[in-house]
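Need residues for this backbone.
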């Protein structure tokens, strides 16, 4: 009888990144992973800003559990300074309370929020951001986390548009693989 050692998942898939290799090894060993773990595995180097919070939306929460490099660039802070804070640290004088209340109501109802806010970077400069925030649910339907995809936008010049989607355009365009996948999921799509 011939016994062959079981090939590691990374040997089977050949030339893949160390991060993807580690992720596949985890799934092979434990057989599952949460949406939060999947986001952490794939989002780190994405150009779109991605932040994951706990599900506690009442002050002082929610608490940021994960932020990618793109989020750090967007808000002008180091990642080590972001994790553990509430996303409220970005709010300031020109952050519209009405939009924040709409955001809060959507999260409280377990629904997606898609909108625009004026936020402030670590150095105090303001910027306009498009936010697409969604609940991450456990198998039993309970909300475990919220994930927010964010990108900086600028106001279009010229004729006023009929909707928020037509009033803004993104500052940067990305062609990375994750951006394509997010588009396929309808992230930043107006409904």
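Answer:
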């Amino acid at each position: 009888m011939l016994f062959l050692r079981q090939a590691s998942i990374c040997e089977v898939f050949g030339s893949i990144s160390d991060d993807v290799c580690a992720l596949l090894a985890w799934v092979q060993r434990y057989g599952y992973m949460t949406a939060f773990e999947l986001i952490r595995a794939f989002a780190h180097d994405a150009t779109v800003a991605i932040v994951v919070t706990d599900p506690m939306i009442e002050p002082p929460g929610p608490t940021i559990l994960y932020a990618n490099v793109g989020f750090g660039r967007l808000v002008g802070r180091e990642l080590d300074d972001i994790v553990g804070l509430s996303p409220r640290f970005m709010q300031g004088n020109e952050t519209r309370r009405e939009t924040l209340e709409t955001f809060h109501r959507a999260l409280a109802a377990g629904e997606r929020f898609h909108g625009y806010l004026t936020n402030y970077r670590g150095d105090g400069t303001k910027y306009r951001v498009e936010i697409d925030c969604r609940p991450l649910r456990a198998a039993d339907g309970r909300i475990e986390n919220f994930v927010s995809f964010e990108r900086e936008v600028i106001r279009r010049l010229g004729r006023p548009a009929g909707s928020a989607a037509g009033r803004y355009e993104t500052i940067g365009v990305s062609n990375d693989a994750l951006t394509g996948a997010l588009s396929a999921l309808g992230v930043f799509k107006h409904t």
